[in-house]
Amino acid sequence: MTSTGTAVAEAAIGKSPTNKISIVMFSGTADKFIPLGVLAQAGSAMGMDVEVFITGFALLGFTKEPHEAPFPSEFAAMAPALMQGMKGNQVAPWDTMLRQAKDLGAKVHVCSMMSGVMGLKLEDYNDLVDDVVGAATFVETARGGETFFI
Amino acid sequence: MTSTGTAVAEAAIGKSPTNKISIVMFSGTADKFIPLGVLAQAGSAMGMDVEVFITGFALLGFTKEPHEAPFPSEFAAMAPALMQGMKGNQVAPWDTMLRQAKDLGAKVHVCSMMSGVMGLKLEDYNDLVDDVVGAATFVETARGGETFFI
Amino acid sequence: MTSTGTAVAEAAIGKSPTNKISIVMFSGTADKFIPLGVLAQAGSAMGMDVEVFITGFALLGFTKEPHEAPFPSEFAAMAPALMQGMKGNQVAPWDTMLRQAKDLGAKVHVCSMMSGVMGLKLEDYNDLVDDVVGAATFVETARGGETFFI
After folding, report:
1. Separation between Cα atoms, residue A147 and residue A21, nearest integer Å
2. How far apart are CA C20 and CA C18, in angstroms?
């Protein structure tokens, strides 16, 4: 589909493109942090609002105390080749991409409920994190945009 | 981003916030049922339409005959501490949160194709389930809202 | 919720239903290809634009050289019964469903960054793939529609 086609289709149904991407980041395996960085960076670079809500096992990727994220068990054998491929292609680490997104206005919120469950407070998180909020606040923030659950 | 900022951005692009959340619940590991409960409950409490479509391994969480959902293999070692943290923080079980959502109007649909594959009929599901529908019906229902694939 | 109810709610908030589904296909386990096929086929059959972005481990499902997708480790014991159930219920394979979607206009894009990481070029992919594009192009294409991250 061409972008002209998209514009025509949207005009036909009386709808403007949204200007917001909201990402719920739940999974904590190492691979899933890459699409978080890529989507946040791409959306921010295009001038979209990007709102990220960190919950579940993904919290462990945002603590001052580092936790090594596990590779998904089904694809563990591929990990060395992929790491090599990322270096060879000079792919930026996910947190570098997320930091670029934040420089362009992206916000990173951490789930208050899951923080409580894991015994983590705002001061336990690194500087990628803007604040600790409840899910209702995030759902309100996400309204009217595209949403991704990673 | 402030909520005022959101409103201004939406006004600028001529778009109202949506009033519907649709969740495709596919994953069947124990951890993923928590965001289902949280998103459904938060959305319903805010007066949004919440539509849930249960498919894949998640069907096993809705049968009268109970199935214990497995913990994701990569994080299995964390299961006891997380269970302890949920009790200590008085986090409601996911099905309690989903029931609260249903009391506020949320609907839970089960996938007809996957029910057939697993040999399950409407009478095999518990009272969280409203009906058994096809994917096309769900896609139609989901139009014009936020969508999450868990 | 009835479809009349949906229409009323949408009129109330001044919003038309969207006419586009965008799917980011990241997971590479065998089970997750089924909802890709189902959502793409259902959306296309309803006259919606369907845009699929293949990335992560899912790339391996689209190469000329076949790769057998692993079953998720937590549910591996269920694989034989599910395969049997799919045959018994004459469920089409996921690639047949995706091909039907493509016949109705769905587009399948492969992630350029992940292709580079895996050392794959356009000519390494099978005929389900339309092109190799960057994430920013996909984010632009996805604007104003429903989005799913599988």
Report:
1. 6
2. 6
- Angle at the Cα of A29 from the Cα atoms of A26 and A32, rounded to 5 degrees: 70
Per-residue pLDDT of chain C (150 residues; tens, 9 = 90+): 444 444 444 444 434 567 999 999 999 999 999 999 999 999 999 999 999 999 999 999 999 999 999 999 999 999 999 999 999 999 999 999 999 999 999 999 999 999 999 999 999 999 999 999 999 999 999 999 999 999
Residues of A with CB below 8 A from B78's CB? 57
What is the complex's ipTM, to 2 decimals?
Answer: 0.89
The CA-based dihedral angle spanning residues A34, A40, A42, A46, taken in that order and rounded to the nearest 10 degrees = 180
Give all strands (DSSP E) within chain A, no chain letters. Answer: 20-25, 49-54, 107-111, 131-133, 146-149
Among B131, B149, B150, the strongest candidate for a mutation testing the C interface, having the largest count of C CBs within 10 A, is B149
Residues with Cβ < 8 Å from C147, sequence gap 6 or more?
A146, A147, A148, B147, C21, C22, C23, C24
Spatial separation of the C-alpha atoms in residues B65 and B62, rounded to whole Å: 9
Structure tokens at A127: 């500087």
A131 strand-pairing partners? A109
Query: Is beta strand C20-25 parallel, antiparallel or unpaired with respect to B146-149?
Result: unpaired
CB pairs under 8 A between A and C: 100
Q: Give backbone dihedrals phi and psi of C46, rounded to 5 degrees, phi first.
A: -90, 10
Is C19 within 8 Å of chain A by CB?
Answer: yes
